[in-house]
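Consider the tokenized backbone below.
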């Protein structure tokens, strides 16, 4: 039985890229068929609500810059760290590229770009791990607080579960300094947790709070200005759940997962199918648009400096 399980795991590992591409293709195909069935109305609604789209581009762009800044805040080796401008460009470029990355082997990823700009492999991976972990901690904490007051089935139970997982994650992080506790773990896991235990200052943790607040602003404006009433508490809860879904799901940017979440919440708040679809598309497009604008702005500024010289 154990041998058979091992063979299955090896089979899946060897075909990991193919599996991810297949899932991604299935998600894209499903979304495309669904949108084609709705016709042009969602797109006309987006054009009609262009002021809202500009607001969302601003909030998502701000969130992207905050994410880049949070990466710097938890860096394990500041000597090899690129400057803020370069990291923001890398974040914006990888956000755009991640939509089509599964189809192109070897295309530059965030990690590759960071390494190309001077970070060591170990520093890049350990800093990314710390950033993801802290993001998860604050998402769990936010969910545990906000779900308590939302009108959803089993809200208090979910809140308690989130609080337990948050506390466990925090204790695991703070105790990871004691390397002997993980001496029997695989080497990569042990190395990751040894860097996770390095002190993260209160000032650094502020960036993770701001990350959730920027997402909250995006959801609050998007839902309320499209006619789906969403309280601040519910927007905070949605932000936390979106972060958890994006990290735990291996589909790039949570594509198809978070979009479905936005769509069904909008339907639940009384929007038509077409309007709910427009809302979900607008949130997704605003993220890609802000990323593209920030990336191009950085490149154009660099080009103008070179021309002046």
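A designed sequence for it:
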């Amino acid at each position: 039985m154990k041998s058979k399980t091992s063979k299955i795991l090896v089979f899946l590992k060897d075909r990991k890229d193919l599996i991810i591409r297949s899932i991604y293709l299935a998600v894209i195909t499903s979304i495309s068929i669904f949108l084609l069935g709705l016709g042009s109305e969602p797109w006309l609604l987006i054009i009609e609500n262009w002021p809202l789209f500009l607001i969302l581009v601003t909030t998502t762009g701000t969130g992207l810059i905050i994410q880049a800044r949070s990466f710097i805040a938890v860096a394990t080796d500041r000597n090899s760290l690129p400057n803020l401008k370069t990291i923001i460009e890398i974040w914006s470029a990888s956000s755009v590229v991640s939509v089509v990355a599964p189809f192109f082997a070897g295309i530059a990823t965030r990690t590759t770009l960071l390494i190309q700009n001077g970070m060591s492999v170990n520093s890049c991976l350990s800093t990314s791990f710390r950033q993801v972990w802290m993001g998860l901690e604050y998402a769990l904490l936010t969910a545990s607080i906000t779900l308590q007051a939302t009108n959803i089935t089993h809200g208090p139970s979910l809140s308690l579960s989130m609080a337990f997982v948050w506390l466990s994650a925090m204790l695991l992080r703070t105790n990871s300094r004691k390397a002997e506790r993980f001496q029997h773990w695989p080497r990569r896991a042990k190395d990751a947790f040894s860097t996770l235990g390095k002190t993260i200052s209160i000032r650094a943790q502020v960036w993770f709070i701001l990350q959730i607040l920027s997402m909250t602003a995006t959801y609050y404006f998007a839902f309320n200005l499209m006619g789906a009433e969403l309280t601040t508490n519910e927007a905070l809860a949605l932000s936390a759940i979106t972060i958890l879904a994006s990290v735990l799901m291996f589909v790039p940017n949570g594509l198809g997962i978070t979009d479905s979440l936005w769509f069904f919440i909008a339907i639940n708040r009384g929007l038509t199918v077409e309007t709910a679809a427009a809302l979900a598309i607008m949130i997704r497009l605003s993220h890609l648009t802000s990323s593209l604008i920030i990336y191009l702005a950085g490149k154009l500024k660099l080009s103008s400096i070179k021309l002046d010289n």
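The CA atoms of residues 34 and 277 lie 9 Å apart.
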